[in-house]
Amino acid sequence: MGYNVAIDGPAGAGKSTIAKLVAKEKGYIYVDTGAMYRAMAMHFLKKGIQPEETDKVAAACEDADVTISYEDGVQQVYLNGENVTAQLRTEEVGNMASKTSAIPKVREKLLELQRGLARNENVIMDGRDIGTNILPNADVKIYLTASVDTRAKRRYDELTEKGISCDYEEIKKDIRDRDERDMNRETAPLRQAEDAVLVDSSDMGIDEVVRTICSHINLL
Ligand code: DC
Fold first, then answer.
1. Residue 85 near ligand 1, beta carbon < 6 Å
2. Which residue out of 15, 40, 88, 101 has the highest number of ligand 1 atoms within 8 Å of its CB and is therefore the one to mutate?
3. Fewest C-beta atoms under 10 Å: which of 7, 49, 179, 195?
4. Mean pLDDT, range 51-76, rounded to an integer
5. Ligand 1 mean position to 134 CA, how many Å?
6. pLDDT band at 6, cuts 50/70/90?
7. pTM for the full predicted model
8. DSSP the chain
């Protein structure tokens, strides 16, 4: 069994930024499970399936093959043999992933892939149900969150910096909607595991969050 660190939390809390830095510091592999749900979402979008068509989504899981490899330490996601990594971070794919990840067949499909990676490697894995469901025996569990306003502001700044015009209130609404879906679905909803350390990054810089999380890892 590898050494396992689980980081869960809502959209925009900075999980991937932080997890990548902790992985570098500690020499672990960073596993982005959101990217796997996004790859599944891309598959459904390509087939023209609506997220409400749950039977069609479940049936389409049969011919979706999601695999992961690491190139220079960076996770690459393949959907039916095609490297789709660069296409996963759009709002369209993110929203579709937020909806279709509530469907049990979709979660079943990715469970073994995620557990298998953690079995063989030292990993820091981020997602929504890692500490509660995927790796209940993880060595360290972190629940990373921030206020809706902070998360919306970070997202707004990130998009503006990239020259993408956006509306702050719309971003905030999108984050609220995503929280609502991720936290209230029946299968593996987002919640803090009982033995997870709560880190609220609303008033913390990136370095401080990384140091806080590394201090919990170093305790062991
Ligand atoms: O972290 P992200 O924004 O890339 O994730 C996209 C969606 O996938 C998110 O809205 C919820 C879902 N997801 C999930 O249900 N379980 C995970 N372990 C990771 C992501």
1. no
2. 101
3. 195
4. 96
5. 13
6. very high
7. 0.94
8. ---EEEEE--TTSSHHHHHHHHHHHHTPEEEEHHHHHHHHHHHHHHTT--TT-HHHHHHHGGG--EEEEEETTEEEEEETTEE-GGGS-SHHHHHHHHHHTTSHHHHHHHHHHHHHHHHHS-EEEEESSIIIII-TT-SEEEEEE--HHHHHHHHHHHHHHTT----HHHHHHHHHHHHHHHHH-SSS-----TTPEEEE-TT--HHHHHHHHHHHHHT-
